[in-house]
Amino acid sequence: MTTRSATRMRETSETAVEISLTVDGNGDATAETGVGFFDHMLDSFAEHGLFDLDVACEGDLAVDDHHTVEDVAIALGKTFDGALGDRAGIRRFADRRVPLDEAVAGVVVDVSGRPLFQFDGAFSQEAVGGFSSAMAPHFLRSLAVNAGLTLHADVRGENAHHEIEALFKATARALDDATRLDERRADAPSTKGEL
């Protein structure tokens, strides 16, 4: 089986990001972004998606967490897109709900090549550590746009830590399901013949 992996670098006046990803991994991760809770979410994303993921980012955290989270998501999306190639043989669709104590998040994904993001929910606190809660859906939007995903997400709960973590876990599980290879399929899963 061909190894589905890719590495991407993104450097701007605001951040320098380097990411390596293996889609069919073991859940091994190292994340060093300077935002502790975000590192925790990236570790959780890798663990629950069984992706091998290395993320290093130096960002303008003296401003806030926005550029760091956004640019990591952009680079991660492009890395996923590169690792999946022509997407031949993937399952394409997935629907996952993940609870974390009182919180529950749902993610429906189509690895379609057509980027779209919809979000329904709110967060119970404005931030978790140095991570702004509003950056969770922004991360998912940036990931979806750059990976070519149609991604619908929702969350409810009473604790922003739980709400955001459930979202990252549900996204990871949905992407793991949707990017898995189906031995019955050799081509892209589309009547068009390509995604």
Q: How would you characterize the overall build of this protein?
A:
With 195 residues, this protein is α+β, with helices and mostly antiparallel strands. It has one domain (5-179): Ribosomal Protein S5, domain 2. Helix content is 34%, strand content 31%. It has four helices and ten strands. The chain has helices spanning 36-49, 66-84, 135-147, 160-179, and strands at residues 5-11, 15-22, 29-32, 52-59, 93-100, 103-110, 116-121, 127-128, 131-132, 150-156. The strands form three sheets. The protein has a four-stranded mixed sheet with strand order 1-2-4-3, with helices on one face. The chain has a four-stranded mixed sheet with strand order 5-6-10-7, covered by helices on one side. It has a two-stranded antiparallel ribbon with strand order 8-9. It is globular and about 45 Å long. The model has no long low-confidence stretch (mean pLDDT 96).
